[in-house]
Amino acid sequence: VGTLYRSPVPSPGPFSFDAGSMKCKLAVPDHQGLVSLSENRNQSTLLPLLNTRCIYTLYMALMMERRIILVSESLDRCSAAVYAARDMIYPMYWQHVFIPVLPEALIDYVAAPMPLLIGLHKSLEERARRIWGEELVLVDLDNDEMQVPPSLLNEDMLKIPHSIEESVMEGIKGIKKMYENEETRKKIGNKLSKMFCVTLVA
């Protein structure tokens, strides 16, 4: 740890360093480019957890800058999914409250009157619901379910052209199908990120 601490911050990409008798190899993620599913643990965690409609709705909730909370019994799964959600809107960047795992002692942060993207342990879900009620986009990662505000469904999402919705849904569905097969999974690369990116300029 001391050797790594004294080393300069490496550029994005693979790098190695000597730690006594061991040679360690690590990789620094590149946040200035499209995310590759095969190289990004966060995206490969989120993709199989949610159905096509949930992924599409989560993407639209991010674009509409909603209050979004992802809950799970697993904090590891929770934090990975929150990072994956943030990367969906590349090349834009989430500029609001961003907390991969919110500690119970800071649960009042959920009451912030602004857009937020937060990971939360399942045991705190009801407290979050009581604070925001129907105005919260609540994603249950363990059960593949979403609570979506009526205003998002009946107002914001209706502004999206049907052709774009259909294209994104079909794209997500195709990528999820590729992910189910070990051979085709390796070929996904940055297809998911590229699809979302193209949607932003459509």
What does this structure look like?
The chain has 202 residues and is α/β, with parallel strands linked by helices. It is built from nine helices and seven strands. The chain has helices at 2-6, 41-46, 52-63, 75-87, 125-132, 150-156, 162-180, 182-185, 191-200, and strands at residues 13-19, 22-28, 67-72, 97-99, 116-121, 137-140, 145-147. The chain has a five-stranded mixed beta sheet with strand order 4-5-3-6-7, covered by helices on one side. The chain has a two-stranded antiparallel ribbon with strand order 1-2. The longest helix has 19 residues, at 162-180. It is globular and about 60 Å long. The mean pLDDT is 86.
Major sheet summary line: 5 strands, mixed
- Count of DSSP strands: 7
Strand line-up in the sheet with most strands? 4-5-3-6-7
Which regions contain 5 or more consecutive residues with pLDDT less than 50? none
Distance between the termini: 46 Å
Helix segment count? Answer: 9
The SS-based structural class is: alpha/beta
Mean of the pLDDT scores? 86
Task: Please tell me what the overall shape is.
Answer: globular
**What's the SSE pattern?**
HEEHHEHEEHEEHHHH
Helix content: 40-55%
Strand content is 15-25%
State Rg: 18 Å
Outline of the structure:
The protein has 9 helices and 7 strands; from the N terminus they run αββααβαββαββαααα. It has helices at 2-6, 41-46, 52-63, 75-87, 125-132, 150-156, 162-180, 182-185, 191-200, and strands spanning 13-19, 22-28, 67-72, 97-99, 116-121, 137-140, 145-147.
